Amino acid sequence: xxxxxxxxxxxxxxxxxxxxxxxxxxxxxxxxxxxxxxxxxxxxxxxxxxxxxxxxxxxxxxxxxxxxxxxxxxxxxxxxxxxxxxxxxxxxxxxxxxxxxxxxxxxxxxxxxxxxxxxxxxxxxxxxxxxxxxxxxxxxxxxxxxxxxxxxxxxxxxxxxxxxxxxxxxxxxxxxxxxxxxxxxxxxxxxxxxxxxxxxxxxxxxxxxxxxxxxxxxxxxxxxxxxxxxx
Length: 231
Ligand SMILES: *[C@@H]1O[C@H](CO)[C@@H](O)[C@H](O)[C@H]1NC(C)=O
Ligand SMILES: [Ca+2]
Hints:
Layout: H1 2-15, E1 19-21, E2 26-30, E3 41-44, E4 50-51, E5 53-61, E6 68-74, E7 82-86, E8 92-96, E9 99-103, E10 114-121, E11 126-131, E12 134-135, E13 139-140, E14 146-147, E15 151-154, E16 173-181, H2 187-194, E17 205-206, E18 210-215, E19 219-222
Antiparallel strand pairs: 1-18, 2-16, 2-19, 3-15, 3-18, 4-14, 5-10, 5-16, 6-7, 6-15, 7-8, 8-9, 10-11, 11-12, 11-13, 16-17
This protein binds 2-acetamido-2-deoxy-beta-D-glucopyranose and calcium ion (CA).
């Protein structure tokens, strides 16, 4: 009994703390442990209660050939308020509120990084997906503005607000350079992001100043997206 209580408090202590950190040059490593303690994931804290326009960019490295969540933003009303998933065949599913668009079979690296950016504007409903310097044509997605307390996770996909994680859409691999903006970033800036050039960091989520909470077996390691200069 006492051991159980102690374990409980240790878990609370190791999973409950948010930390603001400059993660430049670092990655979150999610190994093959989706059933692990607390179903490994990272909660990202953004200071807003409303999103009507956005861009989210991240780089991921994974060989997983099943559905996996790349970015999961839930509100109390919508578990998939803003969600990006990748399927085993390289299809990407973008979801806003209750609307979905599926980009079928985009060429995705299995043994290298993939840089992904997703833009959406609720005024027009237009959305666009960028992958490794290329982009799709514009598509129409929903126009419903995201409102209320936000719950953002990577590593696991929410099927309910702050939870509902399932082993079969968890993420396995590495994630780095995640940024989120409250506007549609220009094509020039997105290309620059993808080529590791200079760009203005996200004003909703900023990898260089990321407020986050790690839960379970997630490791922070050096990322090798930029070729390291070996001495
Ligand atoms: C980080 O996020 C937590 C949870 O939302 C919040 O309580 C805390 O104030 C944030 N820290 C900073 C420095 O913004
Ligand atoms: Ca979901």
